[in-house]
Each structure stands twice: as structure tokens, then as C-alpha cells.
Amino acid sequence: MATDNVELFHRGVRAWSEFDEETALELTTEDVELFALRSATEGPYLGHDGIRAFFADNRESFDLFEPHYDDVRDLGDGQVLGLGSIRIRGKGSGVETDVPSAVIVTFRDGRLAKLRDYGDRDAALEAAGLA
Question: Which of 49, 69, 73, 101 has its CA 20 to 30 A from that of 123?
Fold first, then answer.
């Protein structure tokens, strides 16, 4: 199961990178909770409607939204830690940059149930009990 969760994590990252909303929905539970960095001010994306809203927001804001995690660790108990960055290019402005990303993803019954992006590597490591 541990390897399965890491593989599911990588499949999800590919779906986000390719703006593949259908695959993302297939990989998530009906009650999924997505805490993107912007959730601190805008609130979390909840359920499949939240996933659709997240994709719509990204399509509206970015020409490129490409997460890359070079350090992926199975934490046990259905959790995976991903440390890396998200390459983005603003729609209209054309400005391209890398934004740090440090996520903890919880899987339930073979599907993503919760994702929280801490943004900061140290914060995610602390939340995972690895600081």
C-alpha cells in the first residue's frame, strides 16, 4: 500500500500539471479537502466541486502550473510528504517563477482525501513529525 500511495501521489501531480481535471477527480474522494497556499486567505477547496473550482482558478490565472516534487516520502498511515516547487506562468503577464511547495497528502481507500500545501519545507517537516 505504501508504494501505491506514492504512485498515486505522482499520478495526481501529473494530472495537476496537465490541467487534467477528469483524472484529478477520479483520484480524489468525494469529500476531498484541498488546502492550497491561497487557502489561508480564500479558504479550502472542498469536495469535487472544490477540485473543479481549483482547476478553474488555475486555468484563469496561469498558462503554466507545473508542480515538481524531488523529495517524496511515504509517512505511513496513508500519508505522503512531497517537497519541491510549482513552476507557474501568469496568464497575461507571462511572468514565470518557481513557488516553493511542501505538501502532506492523505489517502483513503486508494484515493486522495486531503492535501495541505505548507509552502515551507520546514513547516511541512514539522507537521509530519520529522523536524
Answer: 49
Task: Please report whether residue 94 resides in a domain.
Answer: yes
Position 2 pLDDT exceeds 60? no
Summary mean pLDDT of the chain: 93
The parent domain of residue 63 ranges over 2-126
Q: Which residues pair with 35 in a beta bridge?
A: 116
Q: Report residue 34's pLDDT band, with 50, 70 and 90 as the boundaries.
A: very high
| Alpha-carbon distance values, 113 to 106, 119, 123 (Å) | 6, 19, 20
User: Which residues does residue 76 pair with via DSSP β-bridges, in sequence order?
Assistant: 79
Please count the structural domains in the chain. Answer: 1
Q: What is the spatial distance between Cα 51 and Cα 43, in angstroms, rounded to a whole number?
A: 13
Q: Is residue 131 part of a domain?
A: no
Lateral strand order in the sheet of 79-90 = 45-46, 28-35, 111-117, 96-108, 79-90, 62-76
Domain CATH for 46:
3.10.450.50
Please report whether residue 112 resides in a domain. yes
**pLDDT of 105-124, one tens digit each?**
999 999 999 999 999 999 99
List, in sequence order, every residue forming a beta bridge with 104; answer none if it has no partner: 81, 116
